[in-house]
Amino acid sequence: MSVHPSIVPVVGIEVKFKNMVYPVILAPGFIAELNAVTHTEDGIVFGAACTLSHMGTVLKEAVHRLPPHQTQVFQAILEQLRWFAGQQIRNVAAIGGNIMTASPISDLNPVFMVVGCKLTLRDKDGSREVQMDDSFFTGYRKTTVRPQEILLSILIPYSKKCQFVSAFKQSPRREDDISIVTAAMSAMFSPGTDIVKDLRLSYGGMAPVTVLAKKTANRLLGRQWGEELLQEACSSLAEEMSLDPSAPGGMVTYRQTLTLSLFYKFYLTVLQKLRLQGLSVQEVSSECLSATEIYHPETPSSIQVYQAVPEGQNQDDMVGRPIMHLSALKQATGEAVYCDDVPLYENELYLALITSTKAHARILSVDISAAEQCPGVVCCLFARDVPGSNITGVRQDETVFADGQVTCVGHIIGAVVADSQLHAQRAAKAVKIQYEELTPIVTIQEAIAAQSFYEPIRTIQNGDLEAGFKQADHILEGEIHMGGQEHFYLETNVTLAVPREEDGEMELFISSQSPSDSQSFVAKALGVPANRVLVRVKRMGGGFGGKESRTTVLSTVVAVAANKLKRPVRCMLDRDEDMLITGGRHPFYGKYKVYVVHLSF
Ligand SMILES: Cc1cc2nc3c(=O)[nH]c(=O)nc-3n(C[C@H](O)[C@H](O)[C@H](O)COP(=O)(O)OP(=O)(O)OC[C@H]3O[C@@H](n4cnc5c(N)ncnc54)[C@H](O)[C@@H]3O)c2cc1C
């Protein structure tokens, strides 16, 4: 297979979030050579497009079949895979994709690096082999692979007698989470001894690339695997794996500590294995040995405890009865129909939002010429296209579309309607907006300093505060701050607006906790009485308060588009769009002053 420079193997994140457009995309999953698995004398060669699930199945089979000393590397990879994303991701993510993404927190690259996996690269002129060592990753998300090359395969070697390999991952959540620090370690011993012949320690999450702690490893060569080695390893790692206090990712002290903790786990694990080989090594207390246990969670189960209703309670009286959520079974099996599952209407279009990239700015110009040239585009919409009132929101202080000025990042400026989501989103990104930036007010404290308040200011006062404080025996003062939060409903905001034939009638399918808000705001934007707007909400995939008034931000825009085009228009926000435009639960800041008087009874 030869590769042309303008062709790239599939590129999810680059296209989605980095605005890259690749004219030709290669689907490695369909190329036989990239999916082959070959068992060789040295190990197993996996085609770069083999999925992680497939790799797991092959490795498990090998672990079952081969003597344990040969499968140390495979077992370490299997242990990492257990904590790697979720099953759905593992079913589609490829080994090659994980290597080539060159993520500094990849969970597999540290293992591949400590055991020196061999990569076969190919371009139109031929193949070459490179070893995955510390020269492979040349910078943040960069490798030595040349632009015209593709990764063809990876050889994962068998482990050798007297070699022990372990891999570790520490993440905020146990399941389906990215690593804070991830590590793999390999120690080789002179036969029949506990003298270190070769040692490799690799860490992810400690630098812009996966690194090898070479200095520490070299210092420990020829040493006995015991307490002294442990002490030296820890002080050496603390020096070698240091982080700048401002290192991206934060948690600097924690991450540095983890490099030692994970080595300690490895130290104890190896000690155990050496003992099992009959060597007399340092005794370890049973308390410490728990660090070597591999954690395997059990499938969670639960019991609902409830009180039986009194005998004779009327069958129709539901109070106290353990009633299952009406949709529970459908939701658990995936049969429940959500708003975006409503089948496509004939002639339906898709909408994407054009949003502000500035926190506070005047809009100087909006250039839609490039967007209009994009495939599938039907029209662009702005404030001038709102037939009724562009003023909206619970407090009537928001706009359907920004009109001349934006007041937050994500402020909706316009929308593009096209024949598909992909086309609409691409065109929306092609709209060029020029701004004149103004000073933003971001925090509540900044708003107080600037005397920027929502009117009217509400006050509840009871009694004479001034007199009260004068007679106080104690006064307590302080302040409380709570950060804003994302509601994080599973189903993002969605609207399907279907214009009906008569009198500007509009039917909306939305996911909302407050359909009446959507009804009245949409009616106002369309300039029709509320009874012309029919809102349907079948169920929600979560709301938590985030789908009360904020749903209307999207539904008004989609309704305006459907009204203008007289065609059904749909928009389901991607997660990043939803987080960008809805605003979430706002932060709170409060100052309190309380007085106390001694009362004698
Ligand atoms: C929800 C989620 C959870 C995740 N959790 C984890 C985790 O726990 N641990 C972890 O390490 N990672 C995790 N990841 C990252 C994940 O492992 C990678 O995104 C995945 O392995 C990439 O594989 P892919 O097949 O999707 O690659 P793609 O996205 O298709 O490709 C990634 C990059 O590699 C290039 N590429 C792909 N194949 C080749 C090839 N054969 N030759 C040359 N270049 C190639 C592509 O052009 C692209 O630039 C997670 C990702 C998601 C979305």
Percent of sequence in beta strands: 15-25%
CATH class of the largest domain, named: Alpha Beta
CATH architecture of the largest domain: 2-Layer Sandwich
Mean pLDDT, to the nearest integer, reads 93
Shape by Cα distribution:
globular
Strand order of the largest sheet: 16-20-14-26-23-24-25
Please tell me how large the radius of gyration is.
Answer: 31 Å
Domain count, please report it.
2
Low-confidence stretches: none
Q: Tell how many strands the DSSP assignment holds.
A: 27
Q: Considering DSSP H and I runs of 4 or more, what fraction of the residues is helical?
A: 25-40%
Main β sheet profile: 7 strands, mixed
Written overview of the protein:
This is XDH. This protein is an alpha+beta fold. The chain folds into two domains: 7-292, 2-Layer Sandwich (Uridine Diphospho-n-acetylenolpyruvylglucosamine Reductase, domain 3), CATH 3.30.465.10; 341-440 and 487-582, Aldehyde Oxidoreductase, domain 3. Helix content is 28%, strand content 24%. It contains 19 helices and 27 strands. The protein is globular and about 85 Å long. It binds flavin-adenine dinucleotide.
